[in-house]
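Structure ticket #2291
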Amino acid sequence: MIEYTPFPGQRRGGQYPIYIKSVTLVYMNILITDLSRITKEDELTKLFIPYGTVSSTTIVMDKITGKSKGFGFVEMPIEKEALLAISKLNKTKVHDKTMSVKKAKDKE
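Resolution: structure written out below.
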């Protein structure tokens, strides 16, 4: 949601100048499970980019071994694009392993 506030000043070209008071972006967080342990974050990003803007990609790593735990998250800022990516990429094979892709549950 973007909140617009009138900017103090003269009216120009039939419109009042404005400045943005606040911006709230709602990102869709996507959970990817059953990832091959050799899948890298950049590979995951490249899978999602054809469906829209990717704001971040994270593969969860084991703190002790430093190896992938086999799941990760992708954030996309546009819900419509994220839903398309989910529907197209769910059950896709990557490195001979079929990954599951779904909307992540909100943190509570």
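Closing remark: The longest helix spans residues 79-89.
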